[in-house]
Amino acid sequence: MNRLLLLCLLVSAQAHGKGLPPFDFAHPNTLTVFSAVADTIPPTIECPASDTIQLNVGQCDSMYNYVISADDDQPNFI
Predict the structure, then answer these.
(1) Residue 57: is its pLDDT beyond 90?
(2) Which end of the chain is more exposed for a tag (fewer CB within 10 A), N or C?
(3) Is the alpha carbon torsion for 50, 74, 14, 26 positive or negative?
(4) Taking Cα atoms as reference points, which of 32, 38, 37 lies closest to residue 9?
C-alpha cells in the first residue's frame, strides 16, 4: 500500500475519532478496517407446534421428526 495513502487514512481516522487496527508489518500491502453494523431486525425462528407422542406398552422409545427454520437479514447467520 502506498505509504502516503496509509498515512492519510490513519490521520483521517484519528481526526474522526475512529481508530484503525494496528498496522500489520508482515503484510504491508493489506489494511483491515472493522466497522460496526447495527442489526435492527431480530432473527426469526419457527419451531414445530406442541405435540404428544404416545408409546405402546413395553415400548421405551420412539422417533419424532420435525423441521425448524430460521431466517435473518444479516449474511452468514448460524
Answers:
(1) yes
(2) C
(3) positive
(4) 32
Burial 38-73, CB ≥16 within 10 A → b, else e: eeeeeeeeeeeeeeeeeeeeeeeeeeeeeeeeeeee
Residue with cell 503484510: 27
Kind of pairing, strands 44-46 and 69-71? antiparallel
> How far apart, in whole angstroms, are the C-alpha atoms of residue 56 and residue 60?
8
Domain boundaries, the chain: 44-72
Q: All 3 cell numbers of residue 40?
A: 435492527
